[in-house]
Automatic annotation (TrEMBL):
It comes from Litoreibacter janthinus. InterPro entries: FAH, Fumarylacetoacetase-like_C, Fumarylacetoacetase_C_sf. The keyword Transit peptide does not apply. Pfam families: FAA_hydrolase (PF01557). Residues 75-282 form the Fumarylacetoacetase-like C-terminal domain. Keywords: Metal-binding. Belongs to the FAH family. GO terms for molecular function: isomerase activity; metal ion binding. GO terms for biological process: carboxylic acid metabolic process. This is 2-keto-4-pentenoate hydratase/2-oxohepta-3-ene-1,7-dioic acid hydratase (Catechol pathway).
Amino acid sequence: MKYLVGETKSGTAVFAVNGEKAVNLTALNAEIGDDLMALIQTPSMLESVAGKIAGAPSVDVSSITPALPVAKPGTIICLGLNYTDHIKEGGYEIPDYPALFMRGKNSIMAAGAPLVRPTCSEKLDYEAELMMIIGKGGRHISEADALDHVFGYTVFNDGSVRDYQRKTHQWTPGKNFDDTGAIGPFVVTPDEVPAGASGLKIESRVGDEILQSSNTANMIWSVAQTIATISEYTTLEPGDLIAMGTPPGVGHAKKPNPRWLVPGEVVDIEIEGIGICSNPIVDEKDHAASVAAE
């Protein structure tokens, strides 16, 4: 199944996507609600509408304004160094334990929404990443069982303010500016992609300019290994989000000059079989003025 959470004139709902068309699942069963949490917590709920999807009215996917797949995720955990060539371009040693950090809820936004370059820095960078959504929670999850805990996969742009990321050994400031982490718009269930979403082309672009191009098979820590590792120290819960790190080609490592995102550009993150997360870059002052005028 391919899901899209988004808004139409009828409100925010969960849609089942087939090509360029989408069926409103919330209209078929109101208990599904306006994000994926009900389906994550009660997967059998899909059975209540499965037989109705084929004959239900559909809308164009392009007519839906994306919303966050999970409106209020409990925990957002990110891997910082998970592709060997990206580790080398950043000047780091290859670690024997994943570099993990957390994002707060104000730092994330939906695909299509403005990705905000802050007033205090021009060093806004892009990071194409695979993101998984936890379906079944747990602690001390074995690697062998880990993929059974995945509800689905989506696309993530881990927008990073590099000078603030480098201010301390902890990356928290540079990874948590408001409206810098774009998620979505589509979520695909595990049966739609190879095991662990491995072997998928992953790419970032601005227009025709290819910024990053790699494959999720190049991740050092797989989805299963990551779930097992994280669940050693914390209990994962349904709806938690885990981002799987970025491949080489990030802006700060470009030679001879860094390649920062600037207002007026649109950055696209694409993962084969999942979709494209596209966001315009805006200046914080312009964004604040736009929000105030609404």
